[in-house]
């Protein structure tokens, strides 16, 4: 019988973990790293960005609700938008110039925004003609289609909606002309699989990233917009 290997956080190397929001466990495993507060989605995104980190050094990044999923030093410039602080941007109307950042990153933020399509349009605008918007949303593979009730429900952490497997198609139908890529990753701590969506007005940067991911390899799917 093989020896048991304790889970290790791929971001900080931590080995101590706690339950998530409201005591949540992932397949019976405590998902939150005590060292860097990362959750499954952060560690998955960290793996994806680590694989393409050599392509980020001349890029500027804006991250809504900063977390441990990317290293600040990977980018030429990094700005974190912290809700309720002096350094906070409205995701639906940032007031930033078009193309101000090459990367706009959002992990489990979109479900808290009243108009998610407008938020995606704004992030795509801010990232410019060949920039990248990377998004994670809660458990899109757990339901067939998105349900939007139009108000912030306090019982589920003030979400406006539950996303479904139709998420890429919702974007494609609402915003023509986008390149949309789904990248699948596995959390090394809990074993949970999740999807990260990469969205761009152009193809070149996404194509270069995909070439790096192919060496890992990372399962990808492209969606028509």
What general outline do the C-alpha atoms trace? globular
Q: Please trace the helix and strand order, writing H or E for each element.
A: EEHEEEHEEEHEEHE
Major β-sheet annotation: 7 strands, mixed
Please work out how many helical segments DSSP would assign: 4
Portion in strands: 15-25%
- The structure class reads alpha/beta
Count of spatially separate domains: 1
Between the first and last Cα atoms, what is the distance in angstroms?
Answer: 49 Å
- Which segments are poorly predicted (pLDDT under 50) over 5 or more consecutive residues? none
Q: Could you please say which CATH topology applies here?
A: Rossmann fold
Short description:
The chain is α/β, with parallel strands linked by helices.
Can you describe what's shown?
The chain has 225 residues and is of the alpha/beta class. A hairpin with a 5-residue loop joins strand 7 (147-153) and strand 8 (159-162). The mean pLDDT is 95. The chain has a seven-stranded mixed β-sheet. Strands 1-2 form a two-stranded antiparallel sheet. It starts with 16 loop residues before the first strand and ends with a strand. The radius of gyration is 17 Å and the shape is globular. The protein has helices at residues 40-51, 116-127, 167-174, 204-213, and strands at residues 17-18, 32-33, 60-64, 77-81, 103-107, 132-136, 147-153, 159-162, 179-186, 193-200, 220-223. It has one domain: Rossmann fold.
